[in-house]
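For concreteness, we quote verbatim a single protein encoded this way:
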Amino acid sequence: CAGGLTLRPSPRRRKIYAVGDSGFEDGSTFRNVAARHPGLRLALLPIGAYEPRWFMSSQHMNPHESVKALALCGAKQALGHHWGTFQLTTEAHDAPAAALTVALQTHGVPPERFTAMRPGQVVEI
């Protein structure tokens, strides 16, 4: 399943889309978010705990799917989370960040548009 919530810090600020444990499925959730909430400033997208795919695909997106979700939801920028803290599944501890780099290159997305947030990292938006 795919889900999440949309926040607006104040009436003058653009919205933030936060996604938790979610499978990509057919991407329709992200297209619907774009239609209902155009002009998203930021998407918080999970990039970890995705292997093995036969078991995890309905619950957790992989970095490739998270890059597709960014494109479909229309956010200006994304921060990747849900990785690097605990070894939850079979991919290597740092595999999500490395896979995100490859996915961004594959989809032609500039790396500054999607940052893999390390636990405790601070990013100014």
Q: What stands out?
A: The beta strands are 5-7, 16-18, 42-46, 77-81, 114-116.
